[in-house]
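name: query_chain
kind: protein
chains: 1
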Amino acid sequence: MPRRTPRNVLFDKLRTPRRLTGFLKTASVCVLIAGVLSPLTQAAAAKSATASNDYCGGQCSDILPPGENGNATLAQILLNQAFGTQPSHAEDQLGPYANLATGYSGLTDAKINTFFNDASFGVPSDQVASTEKPAGRSDVTIVRDKKAGVPHITGTTRYGTEFGAGYAAAEDRLWLMDVFRHVGRGQLTTFAGGAAANQGLEQQFYRNAPYTEADLQAQIDNAIAKNGARGQQALADANAYLDGINSYIDASDSGRYFPGEYVLTGHKDSITNAGTIDHFKIADLVALGSVIGSLFGSGGGGEVNNALSLIAAQSKYGVEQGTKAWESFRERNDAEAVLTVHNGESFPYASKPDDPQGEALPDPGSVTQEPLVYDRTGSAATASAKSTSATAAKTTLSSAKRGMSNALVVSGKYTASGHPIAVFGPQTGYFAPQLLMLQEIQGPGISARGASFAGLSMYVELGRGQDYSWSATTSGQDIIDTYAVELCQDDYHYLYHGTCTAMDKVEQKNAWKPTTADGTAAGSYTMRVWRTKYGPVEYRATVGGKKVAYTTLRSSYLHEADSIIGFQMLNDPDYVKGPKDFQSAAQHINYTFNWFYADSQHTAYYNSGDNPVRASGVDAEFPVWGQQAYEWRNWDPATNTADYTPAAAHPNSVDQDYYISWNNKQAKDYTTASWGDGSVHRGNLLEDRVKKLVAAGGVTRTKLVQAMANAALADLRAEDVLPKLLKVVNSSPVTDSTAADAVSKLQAWVTAGAKRTETSAGSKTYANADAIRILDAWWPLLVKAEFEPGLGSDLYGAFTANLPVDEAPSAGHGPTGSHAGSSFQYGWWSYVDKDIRAVLGESVQGGLAQKYCGGGSLSACRDTLISTLKQAAGLTAAQVYPGDDQCSAGDQWCADSIVQRTLGGIKHGKISWQNRPTFQQVVEYTSHR
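structure:
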């Protein structure tokens, strides 16, 4: 069956033929006239010399595809849909970003900005495209550069600076900001249409953060109250930022150059201009923050799935051996895992207790997932809609968070210049418009350039200051725990400290009807969450015959607004003057991130997040009883606050020889919530390359970019596991012609570097295409044949629920489905690697509980591999790549390709696959204040 790509998109159904033909006749004349009205006042280009507060010496660069301009008038949307024309700066960063995949081998320092933007402060006078005074204010100026249209906001007052930041954000991302404030409230379908992807997106986030308006406001109040003067400044900044957004809404509404999506979704009339665009308020910022925190900064969960696989293992092998087998696959602290802090320092967290206490494992067969959606009508009641709900729930409840992002940072001791070099950025997916936006902000107490999430850009969140840069990757340590609350009276009351207590019911009723943008038939449903003091109910079960509800509690729940203080500090040149100041700022961010830093003299790392101090004996891997003895230390349910591990207990470092991160294990004894931190991880792709560069010395920006770009094209399975598989296969002569031919192709691919790369730029055909097809087909077959006979189907199925077998570029995975770029984050490559090495008789640290391939027999294992290899080699490209809504069956390049997922009306072309940060910086500072 052809694979349908899940679409977190609002406008994929918008097509000019048929449905828009009549609409064009009535609307196009009016909107084409409106479309030529410029939202900018084209003033004379103000002269701007090289900024005196820039210490990067022209050696800071960045890139963020597809482009800075994420707003389009109705006329521009219709022209794009009909003829493919692009609004200015809508995709001018997409080409340079894509071209690095084939251009990195010939890179030089002088050519870096062929593939990146110059991220120096200010705009040279001959590069000024426009200058404006938003709302006629005299205390702020927005200058946009010719190359990328990035807003450079300069204010003489703090209020004016933040007003300008809000105004520029609305100029570039108003529609997207509106979309995500509705996502954060679980109201997307009512706002943008009932497409299945919209249903899935709002359900995914509502299950995680079922907040009321009072909850949103309380977050702001609490964050401000506990942070003194900085809290008050944050509130003033947020209000000024909102004033800027709302000023642009009013100006674009009266000038009729607001985003055309408002017309296409029925919120505005293109002829009469009737309808409203609601002003933003401070609670909207919390709703936006809850989405971002949930997507990228909330590690943990999955305790119920862990319990189910442990029960299956104990059922298969008995309690003692089953637990041993489970632990070997869990790889909590694998001795062979690649580490970010690799100097041997230990940072124990969420380790296995010697004597576990309070575990509340479900009775076999008793677990049922708590429904979220009720009272379905119309298109919400279709089989497709229900399937979407199931996928959204699975994504939300898994511990395998789609963190993504990578970092390569090298100390000046090993660089040619003697100054540190960093290549780093977040891998936030590919969207049109992009979730992030670029900006420069200069004003009293603020001096930074970089990327911020749209609608939260009162500060730069990832970028550079005057003489330092910082970035983050998702860390995934466990800040989410599952509690079993014993039910009493009925299914909606539970025992809290011995008292039968009612659950709180929180509901969101949504309804939609067809629009020009989304023709999904009318429908409606209610999302209903039952909340306890221990968090929302996610499952129901029995434990020892007692009826329980399983709830999930995360430390950042009701605290998404708290991190604003850390970002404020990172933007303050008077606060961050060195690595220790950077670490102090990062300590104020409660999202689970790995933070990296570089200036002209130092590098640094810090792992952020509110890590709760658990009760003695509690194993974070499994559900525990909702009883006072097993609660977080000094936990207050009214505010969801507790004792947290001190900053020194978080993995941290200054001036290590180098740092790498690709969502791998942070440090020795520091357990992350997701599975798969073993001997083979995509972090190894960076570790192997950077370690080699550091050993040779003389590292340059070019060499470090090349290391990143080379790893971005690598097939992790082919580079790190396939040679061992071929060693088994070639342990005896391969006499079967089909198998021999496949082995020859695979070996040639490994010899060539095991890359998924085009034969030449733009060919849309892979070099070693047959070998790639064979491995894509072989991997799931060989994993199943290697492990299922020994584990049994029940335990094998339970383990695959904990950790998917594969994450090749062409596979549909994660919240964005196929064509998402990020690959090889989760898979069974470590298990295969350890098992095959054991069968070969090689040394394995932290091996699996037994040998699985061929029952431990080399010859039987070889037979299994050859049998599945022949089966894989016989599959056609059309069978391996069955096609989807983006690609025809058999198109290998297209199956891997990256698609900018449409969140608005503008579409962009596909680009060749890269496993790479979406926003990326290349930095090497030459001096320091």
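note: Residues 5 and 817 are 6 Å apart (CA to CA).
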